[in-house]
Amino acid sequence: MKNFPIDDFQTIVDDVLIRHRSILDILTKLQESTAKINRAVAKSATYCGCIRIHGERQEIPMDVSYSQLKSYMKDHVDGEFCDICKEKIEHELSTNFFYLTALCNVFDINIEEMLAKYNEQLKTLGKYGLL
């Protein structure tokens, strides 16, 4: 589904969000959806076992420059989500994006414009913009 119109999604979110329209509802639902993402990832490792998480210290040589650092960093995940876990994660991420979009709507922030600005910042500053 390439070139999904984010503006259309933002409009639909504004139309369908009725019950949890308060900023307090949106903030707490966003936090709840983030917790559900964390839980789904954890269950993929602990219940399903389709992925393994190895939380260990990153081993980085002392003489590595910041621009070389990426090649030494690990994501601590082995394996891939099974179809069921992937579907669950996608659902939870979608819900999270829904409430993030609702938050943008409350503050009259256009997501597409916001992401375009951030994209320009990333292109300009690259990895150094994230320090």
TrEMBL record:
Q: Which organism is it from?
A: Alkaliphilus hydrothermalis
Q: Which domain of life is it from?
A: Bacteria
Q: Which Gene3D superfamilies match?
A: MazG-like
The name this protein carries in UniProt is: DUF1573 domain-containing protein
